[in-house]
Specification:
Blueprint lengths: L5 H28 L11 E8 L6 E3 L4 E2 L9 E6 L6 H18 L8 E6 L7 H7 L8 E4 L2 H10 L4 E4 L9 E4 L3 E4 L5 E5 L5 H18 L1
Parallel strand pairs: 4-5, 5-6
Antiparallel strand pairs: 1-10, 2-3, 2-6, 4-9, 7-8, 9-10
Length: 220
């Protein structure tokens, strides 16, 4: 005896549609609450397992405006410790940072560009006026920072950056400063997020920065 009720013929199709809707809902829910994919980084950068907080400090920029921890908050920051009389490492690092920002700006999709902060390891010679002659040469938006030695030490020690003056007995005013060549990345919370070791490749740094910024945004 044949089943003449049309509703019974449509029941399997209805169940399949119901299962598809439930599966779609579960997938969307999983996507919404799943943790973001970890950043895929090059071997040029070390990401800290837990971003390192930084205590406040009191310095000035090359416009002689106060430069404190607040200037690191609300945006990403590349930070480099160097000195304007440096014959090679510092000009190279600043040029690499200039090219890194250009690579960040050229890539799609767009991400917020970081600020670049050059902190002197030689406050004896790097006055605000001297920094104003050096830092904007690479990019008018770059920021030069100087101030009292104890405040510079407070900031550099928190960022694991070292500097040692190398006296020149033959010409005391023409001394060198041995210093860490790494470039540091602070996140918008003003915490140390990652360390880029030298030599620096601007294209690789830009790709790493984009990954770190993407992961930070998706994790927030």
């Amino acid at each position: 005896m044949s089943d003449s009720n049309p509703a019974l013929h449509h029941r399997p199709l209805f169940l399949l549609l119901l299962l598809a809707v439930l599966a779609g809902g579960l997938y969307l829910g999983w996507q919404q609450f799943a943790p973001p994919a970890p950043p895929r980084l090059s071997d040029q950068v070390t990401r800290l397992p837990q971003p390192r907080p930084i205590a406040d400090f009191a310095l000035i920029d090359h416009h002689e405006r106060p430069f404190t921890l607040a200037r690191f908050q609300g945006q990403w920051s590349f930070v480099f410790f160097g000195y304007t009389h440096c014959p090679d490492v510092c000009p190279t690092a600043m040029l690499d940072l200039k090219r890194t920002l250009e690579a960040v700006a050229a890539a799609e999709p767009a991400v917020e560009p970081p600020q670049v902060v050059f902190v002197t390891a030689d406050p004896e010679r790097d006055t605000p006026a001297q920094l104003a002659r050096f830092v904007p040469y690479f990019n008018p938006d770059f920021i030069g920072v100087t101030g009292p030695q104890d405040q510079l030490d407070q900031l550099s020690s928190q960022l694991s950056s070292l500097a040692v003056k190398v006296p020149n007995p033959d010409n005391p005013d023409n001394y060198l400063v041995d210093h860490t060549a790494s470039i540091l990345l602070l996140n918008p919370d003003g915490r140390l997020e990652a360390i880029f070791t030298s030599p620096h490749n601007p294209d690789t740094m830009a790709a790493d920065y984009r990954e770190l910024a993407r992961y930070f945004k998706e994790s927030s």
